[in-house]
Amino acid sequence: MDFSSKLLEQAVDQMSQLPGIGKRTALRLVLHLLRQPEAQTEQLTKALSKLKLEVKRCRNCYNISDTELCDICANPSREEELVCVVEDIRDVMAIENTGQYRGMYHVLGGKISPMDGIGPSQLTIKPLIDKVKDGKITEIIFALSSTMEGDTTNFYIYKQLEGTGIKTSTIARGISVGDELEYADEVTLGRSITNRVPFENSLKS
Amino acid sequence: MDFSSKLLEQAVDQMSQLPGIGKRTALRLVLHLLRQPEAQTEQLTKALSKLKLEVKRCRNCYNISDTELCDICANPSREEELVCVVEDIRDVMAIENTGQYRGMYHVLGGKISPMDGIGPSQLTIKPLIDKVKDGKITEIIFALSSTMEGDTTNFYIYKQLEGTGIKTSTIARGISVGDELEYADEVTLGRSITNRVPFENSLKS
What we know:
Two copies of one chain form a homodimer.
Chain A: H1 6-15, H2 23-35, H3 38-54, E1 56-57, E2 64-65, H4 71-74, E3 79-86, H5 89-98, E4 103-107, H6 125-134, E5 139-142, H7 148-160, E6 167-170, H8 186-194, H9 199-202
Parallel strand pairs in A: 3-4, 3-5, 5-6
Antiparallel strand pairs in A: 1-2
Helix pairs in contact in A: 1-2
């Protein structure tokens, strides 16, 4: 693209570094900001800078937090012996939204993915193992997405936990509530039969 | 959405003010920035602030420019008597990319759209009329999109120009080069027959 303005070009270049934002979309967004009052650009840039500079990782669960210890870890009514292992804050938000979980979390910060150059040392796996070895945790729930990377990460952690005697589980995979069987994929349907649950359980929620 | 961090929430709120960016996409973009080195956020926010604070409108054509007079208006080899009326800088970039146009531009900054509260006074129509009345321009080419708003804007300017005796034209509408007739819409095909051009013209480019 041939810009008549260096300033515009730089702004578009920077905006198009964001994932899923191409040059055309970046130009559309930047032109939108130009049409808006100056305050909007200022608020956007301030919020981004402030976040980047001031945000913390909770020292217990590594979730994004404004404080040293996040609200969930600081809440005395949560079940401290139960830890759900997730990839990032979006998973924490999704599980919290269900209102069904009263345990703690451990945010890995990603999945093991050699293709993207992400190994175990870049994730918060070591602190998780250390927490388990401290002996306060009785069960680890794996809630990573069931992709190759997710399964690899689960298995790696599982292996590291060998000998600790801790109970491990994964969230149930199965047919979504309300879905038709005929449209379900075979792997999911197969697993939902293998891992069938007592009928009485389905009466509870 | 229920954020564990106010800082994160503010950044997502601001990001989702951009057109076409919902809360989920905003969260994805902000989390991406958090994973990148601090320099990236800094460069992005600096480029946006700098653009908003320092960018100018060319005093002749109202295009976005770093200087008082944009490169096109300042170029003595462009044909000063020919002015192409466009909506915004993206149209200027598109026409410049063709390499087929050597005249000047006039950037309106939008289209007349009562639905969005945009009237003639918010656009740079008055300066255009004044330029025409100065007498240096011999032809105005309308290159707005052929939507209701575009047609309204064209017609409004056309009416304002009545009595000045200036030549007006619009860019040709027709079947795209390489397109099959059977897939063309009727209006476009109809116009391309009504406004047919001498066969010799098609041999030139």
